[in-house]
Amino acid sequence: MNAVITCKEVTKTYGKKKALDHLSLSIPGNGIVGILGPNGCGKSTFFRSLVGLVKPDSGQMKILDRKPGWKTNKDIAYLPDRARWYPNHTVDEAFKWAKHFLDHFELETAIKLADYMDIGRDMKVQGMSRGQEARLMLILCIARNVPLVILDEPFTGIDIISREQIIDGLIDYLQERNQTILISTHEIHEIEGLFDYSIFMDKGTAIWSGETETLRAQYGSMHQVFKTFYKRRLERQ
Ligand SMILES: Nc1ncnc2c1ncn2[C@@H]1O[C@H](COP(=O)(O)OP(=O)(O)OP(=O)(O)O)[C@@H](O)[C@H]1O
């Protein structure tokens, strides 16, 4: 399988803090990939550098066989952490905006996903709960027929029951698509079963990457994996 993303020795420093520290990895195409690790391990910085919002100090990065930047971004749907939508838009208006401005946005897919996720199309963003707005942001990204979708902490603010429903929906929906979806989270125990491939990060570097099945066979559950990988860090807290 061809890699959709390769990084070689990528480093990004803020002052004395190394947000990415010689990060090297290769991410295979198709399926759902978890970028996992505790707060501050570099997940968002990694995503921002993939879409050219952050320029690494050194190292090489290839995404869809190209360099990161605005030309490559046409084929990427990116949901930043803490993303918000225009408060005055209704869901329908948000979809119309997206159809007009976002490459490869599929209106019919968005409408289907809104039904599935229980988001009324006449709802105004400013009247939405945090979880409802998070669902809208998710729909605006995954309704784009692009090879790569990058979701930074997309489930923040969504309760556990809705989360499970959305995840089941995502898995069904993705089976019909040839997309790679990168999802970052530090709440691994709540999204067990979602990832085909997992990358565990710590202190700006990848400490393990591979098929999630391999991990499960070795450790039993993702929760156990998390505890094992970050044991020393948890003991320090
Ligand atoms: N613009 C910035 N200026 C200064 N420091 C930054 C900046 N962006 C990130 N950092 C630092 O780099 C490190 C990695 O941050 P990053 O946001 O990439 O981690 P994360 O794994 O996404 O964390 P979280 O799970 O909390 O979102 C942190 O120590 C953070 O404080």
Describe the protein's architecture and organization.
This protein is an alpha/beta fold. The strands form 2 sheets. Strands 5-6-7-3-8-9 form a 6-stranded mixed beta sheet, with helices on both faces. The protein is globular. 35% of the residues lie in helices and 27% in strands. The model has no long low-confidence stretch (mean pLDDT 89). It has 9 helices and 9 strands. Bound molecules: adenosine-5'-triphosphate. Adenosine-5'-triphosphate binds at residues 14, 17, 19, 37, 39-45, 81, 186. Adenosine-5'-triphosphate is lined by residues 14, 17, 19, 37, 39-45, 81, 186.
What are the salient characteristics of this protein?
alpha/beta; 6-stranded mixed β-sheet; 237 residues; 9 strands; 3-stranded antiparallel β-sheet; binds adenosine-5'-triphosphate; 27% strand
Shape: globular
Which structural class best describes the helix and strand composition? alpha/beta
* E-strand count: 9
Mean pLDDT: 89
Which sequence of SSEs, written as H and E, runs from N to C? EEEHEHEHHHEHEEEHHH
Q: What fraction of the residues are assigned to beta strands by DSSP? A: 25-35%
Percent helix: 25-40%
Strand order of the largest sheet: 5-6-7-3-8-9
Low-confidence stretches: none
Distinct small molecules bound, one entry per kind: adenosine-5'-triphosphate
Distance between the termini: 40 Å
Biggest beta sheet summary:
6 strands, mixed
Give me the number of helical elements.
9
Rounded Rg: 18 Å
